[in-house]
Design a protein that fits this description.
The chain is mainly α. The protein contains seven helices and no strands. The chain is elongated. It holds the Pfam family HTH_3.
């Protein structure tokens, strides 16, 4: 399993930074960076956040919990498009162009799509 120490070292090297340079960016010393990279010390939450923001990666990626570097924010329109695509129901697309939906709206749309799909299955 990949550790925070591994990730930090990999991120630093892939960005052509020395331990001293990264230390200055994070407001810690070279020795502290070395200890993080060797697994002898763990950065506090504030430093983890600084690292993730500087390298534009998620905390989960930094901690080795995922190989996805960062999460893309999913908009309401993205959610609806995904539901439409997965369900094969294309008529909804004409009804939401340019509109903003609340979480309740999205839930209603998802429930409707599931209702229509269940109804289709019963007919078969």
């Amino acid at each position: 399993m990949i550790t925070l120490a591994d990730r930090l070292k990999e991120l630093r090297k892939s960005n052509n930074l020395t331990q001293t340079e990264l230390g200055k960016i994070l407001g810690v010393g070279k020795t502290t960076i070395s200890m993080y990279e060797n697994g002898n010390s763990t950065p506090n939450d504030e430093i983890k956040l600084k690292i993730s923001e500087y390298f534009n990666v998620s905390i989960d990626y930094l901690l080795g919990k995922t190989n996805i570097r960062n999460y893309v924010e999913i908009t309401a329109e993205d959610k609806i498009n995904k539901l439409i695509e997965e369900s094969g129901i294309n008529t909804i697309a004409a009804h939401f162009e340019g509109e903003e939906f609340t979480e309740d709206d999205l839930e209603d749309i998802e429930n409707f799509i599931n209702f229509v799909l269940a109804k289709k299955k019963k007919k078969k």
